[in-house]
Amino acid sequence: MLKKTSADLDSLRLLEERLRWLSAWTIHNANHLRPSPDGLKVGGHQASCASMTAIMAALYFHALGPNDKVAVKPHAGPVLHAIHYLLGSQSREQLENFRGFGGMQSYPSRTKDRIPVDFSTGSVGLGVAVTAFASLVQDYLLAHGIMPPEEAGRMVALMGDAELDEGNIYECLIEAYKHDIRNCWWIVDYNRQSLDATTAERMFSRFDEIFASCGWRVVTLKYGKGIEAAFGEPGGAALKRWIDGCGNADYAALTYLGGAAWRARLLKDVPETKPLLDARDDEALAALMTNLGGHDMGALVEAFDAAQDDVPTLFIAYTIKGFGLPFAGHKDNHAGLMNPGQIAALRDKMGVAEGEEWSPWAGLGGNSAEAVRALAENSRIPRAKRERPWQQVEVPALPVPTGGEQSTQAAFGRILLDLSRAGGGLADRIVTTSPDVTVSTNLGAWVNQRGLFRRQELADVFAAAKIPSAQKWGGHQAGQHIELGIAENNLFLMLAALGLAGDLFGTRLFPIGTVYDPFIARGLDALNYACYQDARFLLVATPSGVTLGPEGGAHQSINPPLIALGQPGLRHYEPAFVDELALLIEEAFRLMQAPDGESVYLRLTTRSIAQVERPDDSWKAGAVAGGYWLREPAPGAAAALVYSGALAPEALAAWDALKDDVPGLGLLAVTSPDLLHRGWSESQRRRWAPPRNGEGDHAQHGGGGPAHVETLLAPLSATAGLVTLLDGAPASLSWLGGVRGHRVSPLGVERFGQTGTLSDLYREYRLDVDAIVEAAAELFL
User: What are the two backbone dihedrals, phi and then psi, of residue 763, each rounded to the nearest 5 degrees?
Assistant: First the structure.
């Protein structure tokens, strides 16, 4: 940490002003100056930016080191871009195109913004919590000797105070305490205004207790140096007492009304402050009353410098929403925009000449500009994105577990156990995690082999006491399983952080997370957040569907295949047989480290089924691509049965029952409804790609050939019918009729499940052989 002189503090203050101006002007330009052909409000958050500019100036131009990573409050995204504009790593063109196609994004985005963004933000609370899990990932890499200690950094989250209403913050806080995280700062922009209203005071008196009880140091920055000095003047002690008792709404309203309103109110409520008030005009009084800790450069630098150990720290920085702007403190300022007259007044106040609005150092004199530029150039943050590490580990062929009857869930556990025993580069880079369902999702044997990850040794008390148990779980620094509490949001944030290890720390890991399939929905926001950042991981969700039987409707999943169908960045595979499973796990490891790859979701089952014999490996390419013919249709066949996952035995039995009555009947195994649908959509897009080389505007522009699903269905008659079948929402497969205009008779689950035997449940929900035969008859009646 570099010690700052008073001249440096002055330069930091000038940098803060540049950030406030550039962020405000960027938003103004997008809303008032740039053409708007569709007439929609572009938006932006000038007030939210202004409350953060001092905090971000102190961080980026003083406190941050080259290895520190930051999640920026979503609404302060323009401030981050302004910082990089001053550093020369962001272009004026991008700022001018804020919220435009191809321009800087509304909220910081790892994948869409051109500047280095450590963590995407936008869904409030998640960007905060992921920094704690990133801190845990860094500790994992350090403990395993993968990361040199000198490359370690601090994980920082800049958060709005309203984000402390998000439940995932507290789920994360509890998990972070269990794992004794370190090197993490959360900085609260406590401007006391959310989107709809001013925030309630009651909870903020408790946040320090909540965080302190979880091992965090809490630093409250309530007052700036100027107002602290005023507290020593005659009447200053009374002023402090009054401020400490003033409600958030009152303080915000008085801030908006300005110096005269402050004076009248203080003389009325605390007349003993008169000497202090008489010494200042209205403008100076307004400046004094808004000299809060989050806007005072000296207070911020001092606080950051005093927290240089590895203790996780919560900074509560009091700020004014819209600080320095004409609507500072107004309760409606969240999405408020300055009008042309107001932005012109701000430009004049900051000494920016008309026409020089985009000049990085406009309004600064020669000596000041030189000092500010020098300070900015000394910023230690990266100017460019880290190159993403691809293809770091060879993926071996995974042996297929043997056995005449197997479930995909049990086979998953055996595949991981065999991989662990074989060792090698891939096995050593796998990290597993689970929200208290490690044993029931068949990860137990892997953990027996590889151990729990703990920074401090954790003895297996039951093993030491010679109490028999199948689980032999000791915790140590070489462990490769991160056990989580039963909170699915934490699972997906953990997977996000592990899946970004290569991007954040230069070393790719292969995260595998297990969860009960119906409870994907409990962490869906965090799952979407992980995929949006292009984190790479393998999600194994098991057991699934009403096939779970006696567990009942609360644990029987229905809609996850539809969730996967609509989730970018996540490929859904639902294998029926264990040879498919082994192949698709191989593919998942390949996709996790491929430039054109993605994360993978395996939907597995506890149902043991007879395995099929294969004459050759010709099925494999189709299985990876989303589907293959388990029983080839005859050319021009009138019908096909289409199944996915655990209902393969019913599909095979129905095929046997129908094959003589429906000559040439095909049996299509769909391993990925999601991938087939994507391929079909992409094929249509390619056929109507934008014209090139003077081709007609409305011509068809074929390219790339038919989609895999089009090729699969091509042998069938144009008038053929399809019976689709899966243990889940039938719409996951019924869309197949739209590919070539085939009639569809869809089977699946559309009502909540219940307890029962498989035969009872399959009969009740029309998933049995009789239902399939009836659905086939429906096509011909």
Answer: -70, -45
Would you say residue 694 has pLDDT above 70? Answer: no
| β-strand pairing of 599-603 with 570-573 | parallel
Q: Do 248 and 199 meet the contact criterion of CB atoms below 8 Å apart?
A: yes
What tokens were used for 593? 């480290």
Q: For the residues 269-292, what does the mean pLDDT come to?
A: 96
pLDDT class of 4 with cuts at 50, 70, 90: low
Model pLDDT, residue 462: 87
Kindly tell me the sign of the dihedral angle through the C-alpha atoms of 361, 366, 372, 373. Answer: positive
The answer to whether the beta carbons of residues 626 and 672 sit under 8 Å apart is yes
Would you place residue 691 in the very low, low, confident or very high pLDDT band (cuts 50, 70, 90)?
low
SS (H, E, C) 475-524: EECCCCEEEECCCHHHHHHHHHHHHCHHHHHCCCCEEEEEECHHHHHHHH
736 vs 538: CA distance, rounded Å: 26
pLDDT digits (tens, 9 = 90+) for 578-611: 999 999 999 999 999 999 999 999 999 999 999 9
Q: What is the phi/psi pair of residue 722, to 5°? A: -120, 135
**Digit-coded pLDDT (tens) for 290-325:** 999 999 999 999 999 999 999 999 999 999 999 999
Of 69-83, 461-475, 767-781, minimum mean pLDDT range:
461-475
The pLDDT of residue 2: 53
Closest CA to 395 of 575, 583, 571: 583
Worst-scoring range by mean pLDDT, 544-558, 608-622, 627-641? 544-558
Distance CA 252, CA 378 (A): 36
DSSP 358-391: T-TTTT--HHHHHHHHHHHHT--S-SSPPPPP-S
Query: Which one has a higher pLDDT value, 2 or 243?
Result: 243
Distance separating alpha carbons of residues 634 and 708, to the nearest angstrom: 18
Query: 700 burial class (0-12, 13-18, 19+ CB within 10 angstroms)?
Result: exposed
Which residues pair with residue 321 across a beta bridge? none
Residue ranges of E strands in 107-173:
155-160
Residue 198: strand pairing partners: 193
For residues 726 and 748, the answer to whether their CB atoms sit within 8 Å is: yes
Q: Which two tokens stand for residue 188?
A: 């609260």
| Cβ burial 225-243 (10 Å sphere, 16+ → b, else e) | ebbbebbeeebbebbbeeb
- The helix or strand, by DSSP H or E, that contains position 599, with its residue range, turns out to be strand 599-603
Nearest to 169 by CA among 159, 180, 154: 159
Task: Name which of 222, 135, 242 is nearest 186 in CA terms.
Answer: 135
pLDDT higher than 90, residue 461: no
Q: 157: closest CA among 137, 135, 178?
A: 135
Q: Is the peptide bond before 543 cis (omega within 30 degrees of 0)?
A: yes
Q: Transcribe 202-264 into DSSP letters.
A: HHHHHHHHHHHHTT-EEEEE-B-HHHHHHTTSTTHHHHHHHHHH--HHHHHHHHHH-HHHHHH
3-state secondary structure of 452: strand
Give the global pTM: 0.95
Q: What angle do CA 181, 186, 191 make, to 5 degrees?
A: 160
Which pLDDT score is estimated for 700? 43
Find out whether 776 and 639 touch, Cβ atoms under 8 Å.
yes
How far apart, in Å, are the Cα atoms of 682 and each of 364, 544, 687? 52, 29, 9
Res. 5: pLDDT tops 80: no
d(CA 513, CA 542): 11
Task: Report in angstroms the alpha-carbon separations of 700 from 412, 598, 677.
Answer: 45, 30, 21
**What Rg value do the Cα atoms of the chain yield, rounded?**
30
Beta strands in 645-700 (DSSP E): 666-670
